[in-house]
Amino acid sequence: MLGILRRYLRASEGTVAMIFGLSLVPLVFLSGAGVDYGSAAMREAQLNAIADSASLAAVSPAMMDQGDSASITAATNYFNAQAQAITGINYNTNNLSVTVTDSITTRTVVVSYTAQSQNFFPNVLSVALGGATTIGLSGSSTAVGSVAPNINFYLLLDTSPSMGIPATSTGINTLITNTSAQGGCAFACHESNPSADNLGNPKNLKCSDGTTKFPSGGEDNYAVAQCLGLTLRIDNVRAAVQSLTTTATQTAQNYSAHYQMAVYTFDVNFNTITSLTATLSTVNSDASSIQLYEVYDNNNATSSYSNSDEDTNWDGASNGTKTTPAMSNINSAMPNPGNGTNANGDTPQEVLFIVTDGMIDQNVSSQPAIAGQYGAYCCSGRQQSTINPLNGSGSEPDKDWCTTIKNRGIRIAVLYTQYYPLGTSNSWFNSYVAPLIPPSASQDNIGARLEACASPGLYYAVTTDGDISAAMSALFQLAVSTAHLLK
Fold first, then answer.
1. Helices 468-481 and 233-255, interaxial angle, to 10°?
2. Taking a C-beta distance cutoff of 8 angstroms, is the pair 199, 182 a contact?
3. How far apart are CA 357 and CA 163, in angstroms?
4. DSSP per-residue string spanning 363-426
5. CB atoms within 10 A of CB 278
6. How distant, in Å, are the alpha carbons of 19, 213, 229, 285 from that of 295?
7. Where are the alpha helices (DSSP H) in 297-336?
8. How far is it, in rounded angstroms, from Cα 412 to Cα 415?
9. What is the CATH number of domain 151-168+231-486?
10. CB-based contact 381:395 (threshold 8 Å)
């Protein structure tokens, strides 16, 4: 018996068939699993590609111009149509999730799905997988689309007498030469009753068009400047506003954004030129009425109202219709800003666009005399200084309106029409402006205050001889391109 047992253990006949039979079962399981898992991976890749396309469809330019619901519908319809066309999967539309999140300038769309891949070898894999006849599939795709925000622009333009300075150094010198009876004045002051001031402006002045005007002489400086063909700051501001409407229209088309614009001026009063409108051609047309403030004569705003030439009412006293301050009124004119998206219930962003030479001359509540690097208070309530010279937070005149407005989420863009050393005997300029600008001051203190008023990156100074239209356009583009910095 021991010999028979030894021969049996040494025998090798039939072992191949036995081993093959024993290994056949795992081979079948492995082959079936490989086929089904490979098919599932291919189907999941197809669904992921569809999810990518669906999320991208939801942030197309056409969708970005609509609300969130439109993006959700676009992504849902696209995914469902494509997913249901794939054979070998079990897909229920209830297993699709599309979420949309809007920030100020972007929209983020996330498409997520679950599905099941049907197995080719369900009976075999049901043993290995505990009875499962499908393999679970899932995936997600995220797409981000950028959009330029919708913005309302409120233009606040200085039309006070100082905006009657010629826009070029040559023009300044020409006006000084032709007002020698006054000691040479670079301000083209506009007066309806210049005879009261005995200006002494020349008779029979030869104008730039070849005609001779003013046989009696004594015309106001504004008429002299017009006769000489001088371009004033106010002329350039008017042209710049008209040019800006073209820039804004083209930019809105390029960015698929919606822009509205309102135009106000300030001198003795806060004046409405154009209320907020999306019709920028109306703004262009209305801008032709932007004119230099006309006084009655020296010290008198009208024949019946003497105001000591306090003709730049930034945030001073209100006296019925005779004087209305600019900043409190423009603050009231602007609603709280939205994010500028097209989502239901959202509203445009708000930008205050100030164009000024930065000097104010207004009547305020009684203040002690203060002199310093930003100007002075004097004369029983008269303030002649830069804006916010005290930088305080109390009652007028030191209320910081710039900070108040910026704290509401409204951005402020400031275009400074820079003062040029006029070199004249004009007492007002020499007393209140010259000490604030080089070479009398170490820095341009007027510009420093205006830059502090502006939102970060939205300050622009244009010098005498500079192009105000180009400067205004550049500042507008800065305001549009930095819109995402709002929050």
1. 30
2. yes
3. 7
4. E-S----EEETTEEEETTTEEEEESSTT-BSSSTTSB-HHHHHHHTT-EEEEEEE------S--
5. 13
6. 114, 22, 22, 25
7. 326-333
8. 10
9. 3.40.50.410
10. no
b (16+ CB within 10 A) / e for 99-118? ebebebbebbbbbbbbbbbb
Residue 283 pLDDT exceeds 90: yes
- Mean pLDDT, range 340-344, rounded to an integer: 79
What residue spans define the domains of the chain? 23-146, 151-168+231-486
Query: Which pTM value belongs to this model?
Result: 0.74
Q: Are the CB atoms for 44 and 139 separated by under 8 Å? A: yes
Q: Residue 14 CB: number of other CB atoms within 10 A?
A: 8
For residue 13, name the pLDDT band (cuts at 50, 70, 90). Answer: low
**Dist. CA 112–CA 96, nearest whole Å:** 6
Q: Which token pair is 355?
A: 């164009």
Q: Under a CB-based contact definition with an 8 Å cutoff, are residues 50 and 79 in contact?
A: yes
What's the confidence (pLDDT) of residue 14?
A: 56
Distance in angstroms (rounded) separating the CA atoms of residues 192 and 173:
24
Beta-strand ranges (E) seen in 130-234 are 134-146, 151-158, 190-191, 205-206, 212-213
Q: Which residues contact 377 (CB under 8 A, 6 or more apart)?
A: 364, 367, 368, 369, 370, 383, 384, 385, 397
Residue 128's alpha-carbon distances to 32, 53, 136, 137, 438, in angstroms, are 10, 36, 15, 18, 88
Specify the higher pLDDT residue, 300 or 26: 300
The tokens for 67 are 């609300």
For strand 89-90 and strand 106-118, is the pairing parallel, antiparallel, or unpaired? antiparallel
Q: How far apart are CA 242 and CA 430, in angstroms?
A: 34
Counted residue by residue, the chain has a size of 487
Is residue 288 within 8 A of residue 298, CB to CB? The reply is no
Q: What is the pLDDT of residues 139-165, one digit of tens each?
A: 999 998 877 789 999 999 999 999 999
Residue pair 154/264 in contact (Cβ under 8 Å)? The answer is: yes
Which residue's structure tokens are 């219709």?
A: 321
Contact (Cβ atoms closer than 8 angstroms) between residue 432 and residue 390: no
Strand-pairing partners, residue 102, are 107
Residue 122: strand, helix, or coil: helix
Within 13 Å of residue 403, how many CA atoms lie on the same side as its CB?
Answer: 11
Would you give the end-to-end CA distance of the chain in angstroms? 96
Sign for the pseudo-dihedral over CA of 168, 174, 177, 181: negative
Q: How many CB atoms lie within 10 A of CB 2?
A: 6
- Residue 1: what residue type? M
Is 413 within 8 Å of 353 (Cβ atoms)? yes
